[in-house]
Design brief:
With 270 residues, this protein is an all-beta fold. Among the domains are: 28 residues, no CATH class; 134 residues, Jelly Rolls, CATH 2.60.120. It is 0% helix and 42% strand. It contains no helices and 23 strands. Strands 12, 13, 14, 17, 20, 22 and 23 form a seven-stranded antiparallel beta sheet that branches. It is rod-shaped.
């Protein structure tokens, strides 16, 4: 160790360039350049091994598995709830910061997950899954041949492609919202229009909110007309959505997919 004339202290160097100057070690990663404590140095109530001013609780150091987010020991940075942890750039530009206490985070640029070249505020190279995912895609089939949903009956969507969130009851044809939010809903069917002007209607809690019928009445035997519609609805938890026939029957007898029912959650709201 050497103490220079200017008061700088050098460890492993005779020309210290700062108050304490320790050159990088060439002995390998395991030995390191500067070491605090032993392999077992983790204390449950210790906040840090290196401390700074501020609140007096600003510092960093090892912590035990009982304090780990994943149940593992690690190296942590500590501030109290009136301080923050941040990365800065030229002219003290804020790049990334975490607010103590709340955990609120600020990120200056785009965020990339699985990519180093994010092209928008959040760029994910992969799939996203959230606890509130709700996707329904289904159709109805009553059998092989000329099977039809009866007049003024609920359409039973019993053939399911997707029922993520388990909101569709395939026995009753009723979709029940499990999350409050805005939902996109679409449906279509092939109607038997021999009995004057038939239609399909969408009901929310047994009250019609949208209906669709052919553009003109046709009273010819064995005429089938496709009708379709879509809507965006705000649903509360427990709200029920169903489709009913009005004054006609709906064909659903084979595998040609003459009907469909799609619902997905656009945005959850508080």
């Amino acid at each position: 160790m050497r103490v220079a004339n200017g008061g700088n202290v050098g460890i492993g160097t005779s020309s210290p360039l700062a108050r304490i100057h320790v050159p990088f070690s060439a002995s390998g990663l395991a030995n390191g350049t500067l070491r605090l404590g032993s392999n077992e140095t983790t204390y449950p109530e210790a906040i840090y091994s290196i401390s700074w001013g501020g609140s007096g609780q600003m510092g960093m150091g090892p912590y035990p598995s009982t304090r780990g987010a994943f149940g593992r020991q690690g190296l942590g940075v500590h501030v109290i709830n009136t301080e923050e942890i941040a990365f800065k750039s030229t002219n003290w530009t804020n790049l990334f910061a975490i607010e103590g206490g709340s955990g609120n985070a600020y990120i200056r640029g785009n965020v990339g997950i699985g990519t180093t070249a994010p092209s928008c505020a959040l760029h994910v190279n992969g799939y996203i899954s959230t606890p509130n995912n709700i996707y329904v895609s289904a159709w109805c089939k009553y059998g092989d041949g000329d099977f039809r949903v009866a007049v003024d009956a609920v359409v039973i969507w019993n053939q399911v492609y997707l029922n993520i969130g388990s909101c569709l009851n395939t026995g009753t044809g009723v979709f029940t919202a499990s999350v409050k939010g805005y939902y996109y809903i679409s449906w279509n069917g092939l109607l038997d229009n021999t009995a004057s002007a038939g239609a399909l209607k969408l009901e929310k809690n047994e009250v019609m909110v949208n209906g669709m019928q052919p553009w003109k009445d046709i009273a010819t035997t064995n005429v089938w007309i496709n009708v379709a519609s879509s809507t965006i609805q705000q649903l509360n938890v427990g709200d029920r959505i169903r489709v009913k026939t009005v004054g006609c029957r709906m064909f659903c007898g084979n595998n040609n997919g003459h009907n469909s029912f799609v619902v997905y959650l656009l945005s959850a709201i508080a």
